[in-house]
Amino acid sequence: MIKKPRILIVTPEVTYLPEDMGKQSHYSAKAGGLADVSAALISALFDFGCDVHVALPDYRSLFNGYTTSTHNRELEKIRKRLDEERIHLAADRAFYYLDNVYSGYSDKDLKVSLAFQREVINNIIPRVNPDIIHCNDWMTGLIPAMARQMEIPCLFTIHNIHTMTSTMAEIEDRGIDAASFWQWLFLKIPPQNYEESRDWNRVDFLTSGVFSAHYVNTVSPTFLTEIVENRHPFVENCLKNELTHKYHAGCATGILNAPEPEFNPAVDEMIRYNYGPKNHRRLKTENKAYLQELLDLEPDENAALFFWPSRLDPVQKGCQLLAEILYDLVSQYWAANLQVVFVASGEFQKHFHDIVRFHGLGKRVAVCGFNEELSHQAFAASDFLMMPSSFEPCGLPQMVGGIYGTLPIVHDTGGLHDTIRQLNPENNTGNGFLFNVHDANGFKWALDRAMEFHFLDPDIKEIQIKRIMIESVLEFNHSRCAQAYINLYEKMLKRPFIV
């Protein structure tokens, strides 16, 4: 057993890196939750004293702040010190001058992915000589095959199920010697031999990562079992089958993500009034008054304030369920001054603007595009948080909600199932409200349960929220998450190789 294994984390996104890793610069490239999770895991591993190295594309424009990304708050607020011996930047003009990590055009994103993986395979891995390689999502999906060929233990983490395909001819044209490890790639059609398949048979990047990695993990245990049990029809059969093989071989697991340490109302610099479990009752009310003034909502410290924190995506996030019942919900609880605040961008935002204008709900419903500071303030001000996702690989807002004393209302799926338990004040258990049937009626049922809690005696509510805030801080943290990965690395190093 290697006492201090050298871990190479390969990720296309990161929001920051630990201060104590050396040279000053600001390295931030974020398109979504993967960036936050990568940053937090790297930092936690470093704090645990692990010999951790990071491979990133050299997004020069993003790193140096020459351009603006829609998710670039870290560019402005974080200047971290990095050690060039541990931070390995893949060099290629394909990503030097990008405005965002992903362009939204498949051909450009594929080009970036191949350039990144070429540099990792040809230059960074030989230079680092890692004992473990930890790859993340489709952008790194070819690397586990190379690791398998070189007998380097490789972990492949699935954050979301998006993938890309390419031929071996195109992969080789970009400078990757696919012929040397092609038998570990997953091709869409079972290949007869390399020469026959090279020019036309497409390689699935995400499924290749699962197929060839020594171990695979999703970012929640339940999402993994849901895929294995074929509960998500949108998951392609090839991915489902390979995950199922890994699962039954004992080589797949789920490890929950955790929110950033900055998501703590006691130290959050983005909220108006800091607070903790002991003084949340008064200071959440003051934060609510501040948010109501900021968004021109009707001022009322007793208003039931609901917060929508996730992108307005009807495919995954369930915003259409709220659109269907929003007017009826506000009307039913008009006397309780029920209010809803959206801090979210996405294609469905127009529908909510239309509902607010048509019904004259401007004093009860505020629809705002995503803004990091406003989102933090909404966490601090709101009573409840809405996440009616149809599926959720992990989810972070529901964890943040508990830490801020903002109780989550969620569909019982994926990472939401793993983190939220039905609240029962009489038994002093639970931390939110779940519904099982994913439709507007099911969601409305859970919202009514939340309002029942809202109407309870304030002293009872204070006790429950205090308990939930304390339990959430203890349960949803990166030390727990990092320790789970360390345990997995150690397990992988102990297993004999079967190549």
Report on this structure.
- With 499 residues, the chain is of the alpha/beta class.
- The chain is 42% helix and 14% strand.
- The chain contains 20 helices and 17 strands.
- The strands form four sheets. Strands 5-3-1-6-7-10-11 form a seven-stranded parallel sheet, sandwiched between helices. The chain has a six-stranded parallel sheet with strand order 14-13-12-15-16-17, sandwiched between helices. The protein has a two-stranded antiparallel sheet with strand order 2-4.
- It starts with 5 loop residues before the first strand and ends in a 5-residue tail after the last helix.
- 48% of the residues are buried.
Topology, element by element:
Layout: E1 6-10, E2 23-25, H1 33-47, E3 51-57, H2 60-63, H3 73-77, E4 80-82, E5 87-90, H4 93-96, H5 106-128, E6 132-136, H6 143-150, E7 154-158, E8 165-167, H7 168-173, H8 194-197, E9 202-204, H9 205-212, E10 215-218, H10 221-228, H11 237-248, E11 252-254, H12 280-294, E12 305-308, H13 319-332, E13 339-343, H14 349-359, E14 365-368, H15 372-381, E15 384-387, H16 397-403, E16 407-411, H17 414-419, E17 433-435, H18 440-454, H19 458-475, H20 478-494
Parallel strand pairs: 1-3, 1-6, 3-5, 6-7, 7-10, 10-11, 12-13, 12-15, 13-14, 15-16, 16-17
Antiparallel strand pairs: 2-4, 8-9
Helix pairs in contact: 1-20, 6-9, 9-11, 12-15, 13-18, 16-19
Distance between the termini: 19 Å
Widest sheet: strand order? 5-3-1-6-7-10-11
Helix/strand-derived category reads alpha/beta
Overall mean pLDDT stands at 88
Shape: elongated
Beta-strand residue fraction: 5-15%
